[in-house]
Amino acid sequence: MRRVLFLLIFGVSGLAILLSLGTWQVRRLAWKEALLAEIDSRIAGAPAQLPQHPDPERDKYLPVAVSGSFGPQELHVLVSVKMVGPGYRVIAPFVTDTGNRIMIDRGFITTEAKQTRRDPGPMEIAGNLHWPDEIDGYTPEPDLKSNIWFARDVPAMAAALGTDPVLLVARDRTDPGVTPLPVDTAGIPNDHLQYAITWFGLALVWAAMTTLFLWRGRARTKG
């Protein structure tokens, strides 16, 4: 009987822990979905004026409209687009009519278009402010000789282009040969449903194994 009681306590305790972990992930899923909906709503909002001093926390994803002129330089960030293949994000300096020097993520070009000259003239641009978190310990240093970057490192790119560390990701075309890659929530991880299924699945297996062990223990006791 002691063996059966021990198995019962151990099994119920383990089952309770696994179920609580699964329930916690369900709550996290609801929180993340609400957060993503809020971000989507912010991204799609009507463009406002560029803040005088944009803040990475306060102004992330803020929709902004600016007018001004592109500078002649641009940086190329290596990316791959589904159904298209490898290419580059074009990051260019932009001087607004109010005198701000910021960066514009103009969008995607194919590798063959790397040397193509893009329109540097005056224009109006609508997009979203963004400070992407794309740097980790495995990100290579940029190949400055070939002008190939491997992540959007806003401070480093701003230093290279002589702008403020402010990146505006264009929503619409700024050049016929550039395809916009506007800001969205697709890159924000939301794995809580998978985690919840995993924990509940483990709970089911745990309950089955506990039942089996209890049945065997009871059978031995009777024997």
Give an account of the 3D structure.
By secondary structure, this protein is an alpha+beta fold. It folds into two domains: 2-39 and 190-222; 62-170, no CATH class. The chain has helices spanning 2-43, 154-161, 192-222, and strands spanning 63-70, 75-81, 85-96, 101-110, 122-129, 167-170. A five-stranded mixed beta barrel has the order 1-3-4-6-5. β2 and β3 (85-96) form a beta hairpin. The two termini are 12 Å apart.
The N- to C-terminal Cα distance equals 12 Å
Please summarize the sheet with the most strands.
5 strands, mixed, barrel
The amount of helix comes to 25-40%
Return Rg in Å: 26 Å
Q: How many DSSP H or I helices?
A: 3
Parts with pLDDT < 50 across at least 5 consecutive residues: none
Structural class: alpha+beta
Pfam family, one: SURF1
Family: Belongs to the SURF1 family.
InterPro entries: Surf1/Shy1, Surf1/Surf4
Protein name: SURF1-like protein
SSE arrangement:
Elements (H helix, E strand, L loop, with lengths): L1 H42 L19 E8 L4 E7 L3 E12 L4 E10 L11 E8 L24 H8 L5 E4 L21 H31 L1
